[in-house]
């Protein structure tokens, strides 16, 4: 299904200032071009810090790079007295396609609850951005609830009130696998991916579930991406650390080609 064209998404986190972002996007685009990547069978997206977005937009536009981009977070509000926050309207005005919502670092370091994540998902949808909704269990939750319960509950909570037919992406990122070098097995990613797809069917519709891309994230590298992409319910990856190295990220992105 074309709607499920694999998505390889690079979350830069709080790395790269706006000048460094230009160098990184250029190097990534040239590396992909050298490898004859044309973006038809795989979509590649980068998620730089807010302060880089204007530079990244200008560069991608000017060079007609086949790269998508988005932000790492947004405010649940449209505008107003929310010092330091960024509206989805501003992101849309910068031609962002995507916005990450509910990354485990936001949940853990900024106390984002399922309710906050849901409000942000609704704000993204309202402004025409595709939310990349991050779900995943901590090590303690894994021991207490097993593999799928927490990601499924987080998916349902995030999608409350989202209209049927809304494009969304869900990224399964076990918290214990983020930035740790510990990686889930492809079989676990498949098991949770299938459970998340069933949750999307329940929250939205069967058609939406069939069209929704479900990503795996957590210590993805060029050496382990293939096993994940072979799984029927894994439609790409959300990549943190390895997305800062353009050669390595391009190698991950080229894999399904
Ligand atoms: C992430 O932060 O979304 C992530 C998956 O990080 P890493 O690839 O570094 O584990």
TrEMBL record:
* Binding of substrate, residues: 11-13, 179, 219, 240-241
InterPro entries per the record?
Aldolase_TIM, TIM_sf, TrioseP_Isoase_bac/euk, Triosephosphate_isomerase, Triosephosphate_isomerase_AS
- Enzyme Commission code: 5.3.1.1
Give the record's GO biological process terms.
Answer: gluconeogenesis; glyceraldehyde-3-phosphate biosynthetic process; glycerol catabolic process; glycolytic process
One cellular-component annotation, GO: cytosol
Q: Where in the cell is it found?
A: Cytoplasm
Q: Which UniProt keywords apply?
A: Cytoplasm, Gluconeogenesis, Glycolysis, Isomerase
Q: Which Gene3D superfamilies match?
A: Aldolase class I
Q: Where are the transmembrane segments?
A: none
What pathway annotation does it carry?
Answer: Carbohydrate degradation; glycolysis; D-glyceraldehyde 3-phosphate from glycerone phosphate: step 1/1; Carbohydrate biosynthesis; gluconeogenesis
Query: Does the record bear Glycoprotein in its keywords?
Result: no
Per the Swiss-Prot or TrEMBL record, the active site comprises 103, 173
Catalysed conversion reaction:
D-glyceraldehyde 3-phosphate = dihydroxyacetone phosphate
Q: How does it assemble?
A: Homodimer.
Question: Would you identify the family this protein belongs to, as annotated?
Answer: Belongs to the triosephosphate isomerase family.
Please report the name of this protein according to its UniProt entry. Answer: Triosephosphate isomerase
């Amino acid at each position: 299904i074309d709607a499920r064209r694999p998505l390889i998404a690079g979350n830069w986190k709080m790395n790269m200032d706006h000048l460094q972002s230009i160098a990184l996007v250029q190097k990534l685009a040239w590396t992909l071009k050298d490898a004859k990547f044309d973006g038809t069978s795989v979509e590649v997206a980068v998620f730089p810090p807010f302060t880089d977005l204007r530079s990244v937009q200008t560069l991608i536009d000017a060079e007609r790079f086949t790269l998508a981009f988005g932000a790492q977070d947004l405010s649940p509000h449209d505008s107003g007295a929310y010092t330091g926050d960024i509206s989805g309207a501003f992101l849309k005005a910068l031609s962002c396609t995507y916005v990450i919502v509910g990354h485990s670092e936001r949940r853990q370091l900024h106390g984002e609850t399922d309710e906050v994540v849901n409000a942000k998902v609704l704000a993204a949808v309202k402004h025409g951005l595709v939310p990349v909704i991050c779900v995943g269990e901590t090590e303690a939750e894994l021991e207490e609830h097993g593999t799928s319960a927490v990601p499924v509950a987080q998916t349902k909570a995030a999608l409350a009130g989202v209209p049927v037919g809304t494009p969304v992406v869900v990224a399964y990122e076990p918290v214990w696998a983020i930035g740790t070098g510990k990686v889930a097995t492809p079989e676990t990613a498949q098991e949770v991916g299938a459970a998340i797809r069933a949750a999307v069917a329940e929250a939205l519709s069967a058609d939406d579930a069939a069209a929704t891309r479900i990503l795996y994230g957590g210590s993805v590298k060029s050496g382990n991406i293939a096993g994940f992409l072979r799984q029927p319910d894994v439609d790409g990856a959300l990549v943190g650390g390895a997305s800062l190295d353009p050669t390595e990220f391009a190698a991950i992105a080229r894999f399904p080609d």
